[in-house]
Amino acid sequence: MLDALGWFFQNIALAFLNILQALSNPSSWLDWVLWTNSTEDKESLMRFVYYGGSTEVFFGFFAVFLVLFGIGVWR
To answer: Where are the domains of the chain?
Structure first.
């Protein structure tokens, strides 16, 4: 039980770091927008697909929800 709680809170804490990393490096996962069928385009598309179906994106959205919910309760 403590392992599960540790994993949960660790992922919430790392979600803020993952969000900042994704926002500070958009070229690493948005390079596929201007598709030239290069290896870099294919790699960035796979990064985008992998990130969209991972626990990192779930905890990223959950962290944003928690922050907005906290601000709403405070206000």
So the answer is: 2-74
Contact at 8 Å (CB) between 30 and 40?
A: no
Q: Are 3 and 9 in contact (CB under 8 A)?
A: no
| Mean pLDDT, each 10-residue run in order, the chain (75 residues) | 93 92 77 72 76 82 95 96
Q: How far apart are CA 38 and CA 62, in angstroms?
A: 34
DSSP 35: -
Say how far apart CA 48 and CA 31 lie, in whole Å.
10
Query: What is this structure's pTM?
Result: 0.72
Q: Token pair of 17, please?
A: 């770091």
